[in-house]
């Protein structure tokens, strides 16, 4: 049923379900390295002010240099963050969505003590026009806080596929409250087809067919509608971890499928060392990546678990499964030794 199969052990210290404060940081150090893999568009303090005012900017694409240019001119009537001093220290930040991790952010200088800042700066992205046209531009204005708690002042989001590229003039746009779709990561990243199965200890009769401990089988079938980051397509592969174990023993990956936004992997992974009670505290993380020579780019992922926010009594941010992912995992837990088929949307993690 699959052209590749791999089997590895799920291992960590189960007896440390309620570790002391002293052991917490060392036990969980490797967990944080996975959960922080993708930066958020929104980082900072949102509750202090309401969005108001306008921003003046222009968009252009330099065909010769293959460069997208955002000319940020100025802002007017921004919200006041520090009411006692009657001041804001604003700057403008841009992202290309949905793949904010790949293209990165650009930002202007900070203008101090003004709600009418003048920038006259150009933010540049080296990107092919074909790729640019499947992106959205997120332009947001922020108050810069020396202590790092930057305040959101407003944003505008533009679908570049429908942008009038003959319009190179500076225009004014009203700043809006932050987009719920971007905050929640609701963007189309593709859909993964997979099956999972749990084999409890001692459920298959006598050895050698009977596993001495439980097994979780993950069959990654295919992915549809991946983001196309280059004109030639995307060279994708899938990574798999069983959290909280982020060691090399837990890490598995499929082969790379080249130049295909609908790759078929047909890859099965088996994790042994599972006891039934572990299913409440573990999480299978599957992430899809675009492979390039120098670095790999995150495309989307899913997390299969109960989504309780806790793992062995410890609060963790990767226990954040969606309702669909939780239902899929619960169905596996209730149907031992049966393949459970699913079609799950990829998301930001």
From TrEMBL:
Q: Which InterPro entries match?
A: C2_dom, C2_domain_sf, SYTL1-5_C2B
Question: What Pfam families does its record include?
Answer: C2
Question: Which SUPFAM superfamilies does the entry link to?
Answer: C2 domain (Calcium/lipid-binding domain, CaLB)
Highest rank taxon of the organism: Eukaryota
Stretches of Polar residues bias are at: 1-12
TM regions (residue ranges): none
Region feature (Disordered): 1-29
Domain named C2 is located at 51-173, 188-319
What CDD domains has UniProt attached to this entry? C2A_SLP-1_2, C2B_SLP_1-2-3-4
Q: Where in the cell is it found?
A: Cell membrane
Q: Which GO terms describe its cellular component?
A: exocytic vesicle; plasma membrane
The protein, known as = Synaptotagmin-like protein 2
Please cite one Gene Ontology biological process associated with this protein. exocytosis
